[in-house]
Structure formats: structure tokens, C-alpha cells
Design goal:
about 120 residues; five-stranded parallel beta sheet; 6 helices
Length: about 120
């Protein structure tokens, strides 16, 4: 069971489903999990930018607070994939202490950053 936002499911659900054996993955949206009023039974979670994007340090958005609450209450959670390169949110050491593997997108934008830096040097 993969926990993700409705937006992430619409955006990447088909691509994710295409790379796993049929029937081996069930999608659970954060919105549906929150509405159920029961513990989220996800094994894997994918925290994407639209969940964290409107937040700032010390001032989490409603979406982020809700998603983090689901993660804290997910007894089967074993893996959390996050979109940024760094894992500095207070939640991450908390779930790691429960044995959850937290992986980042470190390096995912390396080529884009390199191109931007090169362009800035050339523009000088």
C-alpha cells in the first residue's frame, strides 16, 4: 500500500503502476486516509512537493500537518520517499527511530542545477 496525495496519484500513478507487478500495489490517497478516521495502513509513502510546498520552517501547512499525522499513525510504514535532497524535518528522525527508511531525491536535479550554473557563468 502506497500513501500519496491525490495530486501525485493523478500525476504519476500510471507510471508507478507500470513498473510493479500487476496487483502488487494499492494506492491510498492521503485525502482518503484522513477521511477514513482510522490508522493509515500504508507500507510506503511518497511525500511530494505539493504536500510540503506551502510550508515554511516552523510553520507547516495544513496539508503537510495532515500528511505527517498519517505517517505518525501508520503502523506498517517501512519506507518514506521525500522529494527534496535534504531530510531536515523533525518528522524524519522520528519515523527513522521506528525503523522506517527515509530516502531523498538527492541528485535528481543535479543536471538541471549544473546547466543553470553553467548558464550563469556564460552569461557573465
Amino acid at each position: 500500500r502506497l500513501l500519496l496525495s491525490s495530486y501525485a496519484l493523478r500525476s504519476w500513478g500510471d507510471r508507478i503502476a507500470a513498473v510493479v507487478p500487476p496487483g502488487s500495489l494499492t494506492f491510498v490517497t492521503a485525502e482518503d486516509a484522513a477521511a477514513s478516521g482510522t490508522a493509515c495502513l500504508a507500507d510506503i509513502a511518497f511525500m511530494t512537493r505539493e504536500v510540503t510546498g506551502a510550508s515554511s520552517p516552523g510553520n507547516p501547512s495544513r496539508d503537510l500537518s495532515a500528511f505527517e499525522g498519517l505517517l505518525r499513525d501508520a503502523p506498517n510504514l517501512r519506507w518514506l520517499q521525500i522529494h527534496p535532497a535534504g531530510a531536515g524535518r523533525a518528522l524524519y528522525p522520528e519515523v527513522r527511530a521506528r525503523g522506517v527508511r527515509v530516502t531523498t531525491a538527492s541528485g535528481a536535479t543535479a543536471l538541471t542545477v549544473a546547466h543553470s550554473a553553467r548558464g550563469a557563468v556564460i552569461a557573465e
